[in-house]
Design a protein that fits this description.
- The chain is α/β, with parallel strands linked by helices.
- Helices cover about 35% and strands about 20% of the residues.
- Strands 3-2-1-4-5-7-6 form a 7-stranded mixed beta sheet, with helices on both faces.
- Strand 1, helix 3 and strand 2 form a beta-alpha-beta unit.
């Protein structure tokens, strides 16, 4: 590994450590939502060295799909999903914070992918979405939700037949025990575990809703 890349990994791990301390001391109502002021740390070219959206999502995204990027932030994954959809399909970029959606709105303004991206503001206790989707990406956000069971039920309700939910959580926030407990509860709600792909410094699972349950 080149020295520059080694330095980046060290800096990234240090940033993760600081983020963990910051979120422990500044959480409100037991929530850990990343503030808009720190959005720059979520969306930069260096991050792609370790968490490349194309590499992570290409096996699951096909032309013509409707994809929900839940907790989209400034659109690190949203933009790449839109590119994977080519000329057809749609990305619903959903976030609780209007400031994050504003950053994404400015990023895609006037680009060829703008028409493929729909911005959606979630409610405090609900995604507030009725449109059916083929695929849901929930990257580093499920642990921010107080009632995870309610979230999973809502996601299941908007999945199309054979739809999938890809949940990715940070190891520095979510323990293996907590993550496995979440998966067990998702299974009790009626989802099936498909696989656990490898993503740098993360815990992952792809869940599927049985066709007969939709």
């Amino acid at each position: 590994m080149k020295p520059r890349n080694i330095n980046y990994v060290v800096n990234l791990l240090y940033y993760m450590f600081l983020a963990k301390l910051d979120m422990k001391t500044n959480k409100e109502k037991d929530q850990r939502i990343c503030p808009v002021e720190k959005a720059g740390g979520l969306d930069n070219s260096f991050r792609k060295l370790l968490q490349n959206p194309q590499k992570i999502l290409k096996p699951y995204i096909n032309k013509g799909m409707t994809v929900l990027d839940l907790g989209c932030g400034p659109g690190f994954f949203t933009v790449e999903i839109a590119k994977l959809l080519k000329e057809s399909g749609k990305v619903i970029a959903a976030d609780l914070q209007e400031g994050m959606l504003d950053k994404l709105r400015q990023k895609i303004k006037g680009t060829e992918i703008e028409e493929r991206i729909t911005l959606h503001k979630c409610q405090e206790e609900s995604i507030d979405l009725t449109e059916k989707v083929d695929f849901v990406l929930a990257f580093y956000m499920v642990h921010e939700v107080p009632d995870q069971d309610k979230l999973i039920r809502e996601l299941k309700s908007i999945l199309k037949p054979d739809g999938k939910i890809f949940i990715i959580e940070p190891k520095f926030h979510v323990s293996k025990i907590s993550f496995n407990s979440m998966i067990d509860r998702a299974k009790n709600i009626g989802l099936e575990e498909m696989e656990r792909p490898k993503v740098f410094f993360s815990r992952t699972v792809v869940l599927k809703c049985p066709t007969s349950d939709i």
